[in-house]
Design a protein that fits this description.
Elements (H helix, E strand, L loop, with lengths): L7 E6 L7 H9 L3 E7 L3 H10 L7 E2 L2 H8 L3 E4 L6 H8 L5 E5 L6 H13 L4 E4 L6 H12 L6 E9 L10 H7 L9 H16 L7 E7 L12 E7 L4 E7 L6 E8 L2 E5 L4 E6 L5 E6 L10 H9 L12 H20 L3 E2 L2
Parallel strand pairs: 1-2, 1-4, 2-3, 4-5, 5-6, 7-10
Antiparallel strand pairs: 7-11, 8-9, 8-15, 9-10, 11-12, 12-13, 13-14
């Protein structure tokens, strides 16, 4: 069933990110987009994945320029290293092609600055995809805090993201090659999972930057991850609240949990169809909130991308927007500096 109108034409830049499975599945059955091709210099990898998903090898292109010239996509989704996101924007923006990258947006502040300059000169939608954006629990959390105002004043947010570790969960060698590289990924767990918390908190704060960022990083498994951190805690300080972001490749199981503490209640949000709510009072009263599905155009990355390209959604300060994600990059950059220098970093 078509959700947002005529499907848009989408090209894929890179296939080394294991999340590319989303695009391969979309090429099989997504009604919101037509995947016109996959640009990947590693031909063996590309053909292996296309075969795995029973897709024609004619969808493979050796580079993004060739894909664009031959297929004329309206948007491009990047499934390569974070370091390569800048090159995708440099290639697409002058041609008026919208871009969505996998989280986070940029590997460092220098790349971010170049991206912003390019988008200012060649206006396109530059979006960032987070799995947590498509959780109904986060939409309900926003409504209760911002619309219904039933939770009172926000005081603390604790966000826990991660898993056992990319090696431990069996990530592909092509993915590990850059995910565990401090240049291509920008860091380890701090970048890989700290970005979720920075994204959610910046969104909840409606684009307000924290006063300061403090981070502690550790190498608990140096024999597996010798070049990057595998355990990081980030503290964001705001005038009237704070956030604690726990990013880890050491959890005993996968988790993406957001705990919101306000003056009148507590919410625990994740991918489940119900959300824990603890109302105010000295001892609290716990209940479960049944969550309604998101609107079709906000329920998954490709439906959302199509709606943005077609002008049906203005990203503004959505979780995927440039306005939110440029602050995410600034927070991650400050956290990296804090972890290295053992100092609190104050943002302008």
């Amino acid at each position: 069933m078509l959700l947002v109108g005529n499907p848009i034409r989408v090209g894929i830049a890179g296939m080394t990110h294991d999340h590319v499975g989303q695009a391969l599945e979309a090429a099989q059955k997504n009604a919101d987009v037509v995947i016109v091709g996959f640009a990947e210099k590693n031909k063996a990898l590309a053909l292996r994945l296309l075969k795995q998903y029973q897709l024609p090898t004619s969808l493979w292109f050796p580079d993004l320029e060739t894909l664009i010239a031959q297929t004329k996509p309206e948007a491009v989704c990047a499934f390569n290293s974070i370091y390569e996101h800048l090159e995708v924007v440099q290639t697409c923006a002058p041609k008026g092609i919208h871009v969505m990258v996998e989280k986070p947006l940029a590997v460092n502040m220098e790349h971010l600055s170049q991206m912003k300059a390019i988008v200012k000169k060649h206006p396109i939608a530059l979006l960032t995809n987070f799995e947590t954006t498509w959780y109904p629990s986060h939409a309900k959390m926003w409504d209760m805090l911002k619309v219904e105002k039933s939770l009172g004043d926000l005081r603390k947010v604790v966000i826990m993201d991660g898993h056992n570790g990319p090696v431990e969960i069996g990530c592909s060698q092509e993915f590990l090659a850059w995910l565990t590289d401090p240049i291509m990924n920008g860091g380890g767990a701090l970048i890989d999972f700290g970005c979720y918390g920075a994204n959610i908190m910046t969104w909840l704060m409606e684009g307000q930057k924290p006063i300061s960022v403090t981070a502690i990083s550790q190498h608990l498994k140096p024999n597996i991850y010798p070049k990057v951190d595998d355990e990081t805690t980030i503290i964001l300080n705001y005038p009237h609240c704070q956030a604690i972001i726990q990013a880890s490749w050491n959890w005993p199981f996968d988790r993406k949990d957001t705990e919101l503490y306000a003056s009148k209640g507590i919410l625990v949000a994740n991918k489940n169809k119900q959300m824990r709510y603890i109302s105010d009072g000295r001892f609290g009263k716990e209940s479960l909130i049944n969550l309604s599905p998101l609107a079709p155009e906000r329920a998954n990355v490709f439906a959302y991308l199509a709606a943005v390209v077609q002008g049906k959604i203005d990203p503004q300060k959505d979780l995927s927007s440039l306005a939110i994600n440029e602050i995410v990059v600034e927070i991650l950059s400050a956290a990296t500096e804090s972890a290295k220098t053992h100092k609190t970093i104050f943002l302008n």
